[in-house]
Amino acid sequence: MSSESGPGPELSRRLGYLFKHAAIRLHELHARALAPFGIDGRELGVLIVIDSHEPASQQQAARRLGVDRTTMVAVLDVLEGKGLVFRRPHEEDRRRNVIDLTDHGRETLRRAVRASDEAEGALLAALDPQDRKRLRDALQRIVAAGDPAEG
Q: What range defines the domain where residue 67 resides?
């Protein structure tokens, strides 16, 4: 790499630069992989959370994803419009909405997860299987540790 192309050795070692450009690449790969299903990466994440917990409230799903209620309602409105989720009043507390996947949502999720896995595989293709596992494990530990300022 010449000194006039690319970020240079100092910047290309910085985590901020590396995370940003890896995330951009993953976003591009996901956008292509998920386009046939009419969803994006954020919507896939919401579908995964809804599917992984027995019918949850909008509030519970928002907490699990770390988004505010207003954002969650907007995403759910879009997913409901696409016929992927439905909302119904909670049996014991009619003020709360329970969300669940439609049959179409379950099928879309199944196929979209497979496409997402392939996109992640493409991103990680330069790594051997052990390095892929180590990278995931390390990132999971970083995320699980949370913000030290909150601790």
A: 14-138
Instruction: Say how far apart CA 43 and CA 62 lie, in whole Å.
Output: 12
* Cβ atoms < 10 Å from Cβ of 94: 8
The partner residues of 57 in beta bridges, in order of sequence, read 98
- Residue 6 included in any domain: no
Asked if the structure places residue 151 within a domain, the reply is no
Chain centroid to CA 43: 7
How far is CA 74 from each of CA 11, 58, 70, 95, rounded to the nearest angstrom?
37, 11, 6, 18
Q: Which CATH number is 85's domain given?
A: 1.10.10.10
131 or 11, greater pLDDT: 131
- Under 8 Å between Cβ of 24 and 93: no
H or E, element range at 40: none
Model pLDDT for residues 29-56, shown as the tens digit of each residue: 999 999 999 999 999 999 999 999 876 7
Specify the pTM. 0.83
Q: Domain tally for the chain?
A: 1
pLDDT at 107 over 60: yes
